[in-house]
Amino acid sequence: MFSVYTSSDMIGSPREMYELLKEASKERPVAGNQDGSYLTLKSNYGLIFGVIQLCSGMGTVFLDQGYWQRAIASRPTTAVKAYILGGFAWFAIPFGFATTLGLSAVALTSNPKYPTYPNPMTTSQIQAGLAAPFAAQTLLGKPGAIALLITLFMAVTSSSSSELIAVSSILTFDVYKTYFKPHATGEQLIFVSHVMICVFGVIMAAFASIWNAVGINLGWLFLVMGLIIGGAVFPAAFTVTWKGQTRLGAISGCLVGLAAGLTAWLVQAKVQYGVINVTTTGGSYPTLAGNMAGVLTGLIVSVAVSLVKPDDFDWSTTRAINMKTLDGQEESESPSPSPPNGSNVEGTEKEPGIIDNGKERKHSHPDHHHDLPTVQEEDREMAEDARYLEDPKALRRSYVLAVVLSVVLTFIMCFLVPIPMFLSHYIFSEKGFTAWVVISFIWVFAALAICGVLPIWETRKFWKLLAVEIFQKKKA
Questions:
Q1: pTM (2 decimals)?
Q2: Mean pLDDT of the chain
Q3: CB 307 within 8 A of CB 244
């Protein structure tokens, strides 16, 4: 962003970017945009893409086991703040990074250094996601392309590792332990989880190779993904928000939503284009029809079936799941008998400087005044979380905070800002575009503070204790 808007001799300022985009609008106007401009939110296909993104985005969040695992594993005192701040920080990627590279690709298409010069990018190149690498290569040469490749590699490995763990967790605990071996030991579960990671890794690689071989790219997958998984969005959401949803309502909503999404998708492609193939099924209107049909049908069917004979689920059952872990005991475990006061049982004598809470032993250093967190301190923190889980008022406050912030931020980002600009057919002036760029810079710096500075600040006590430990050992 700094290179594009400050130091690049090809662009170098918001004003120059604005002029290049105005020129590009004359040379290569965008169908469906106000006056063919790149400087407007009045984009018919942009609105369609936004609806598709909303449907598929809800699916990838509500149905991603990784999100559920993080939410359940997180402390209730911090989970809400973490998710809100994480979402706020994530938006810096499309708003700052992606928008800058996308606009740069448009602005520099007529530059002799652009890889496709003198021709614009083809549809297949755009759908393959090559706009960003082309822009980076034009601006920074080969180092720019390499830097973007590294960024892409880190993003793919991060998301892939998260999905590997998520799928492995489902197959290990929800399938293997639940239906095949309920009394599996910890070593057996670890072994099975490793096997599942390898198996799912091979499956992902196989599917990626198949998609590439038949000509399906990421753009097509992104548009189609929502209509396949959209039917399960509301049934999954209702499982943790509506006690009246029944098993039949949840299952039927998912399956009927999937069927409706696929049907609407293929019918629209056939009616609009007369043929069903990869190109026609990746069109805007067929995928829009499929996404909306899948999500809305899943909602309607789940609610309708559940209302016939509503359930009355007891939420205390779900709270009890974490309580067992916080108490440090499994159902199958029984507390070990303690030796009589003042006596030691053979084999249980404690070594000096050992803290033993019945399950875990950890060395302490009594000659140090600043020990790192001990097992006892961790137990106190877990007990604090247990009290929090038992406090309905505290949980209610977190719930209200999550709902209010989610609704307000969603309304601002999805409606308050873009819709008035869309309906008014507004085209950015130079000052308006400059303000947009400045806001994107502010957002990126805020994301940096959230992801880079805030974690260090919140763990400042740990770093202080660690530094004291290191220097004391050096002196010794």
A1: 0.79
A2: 85
A3: yes
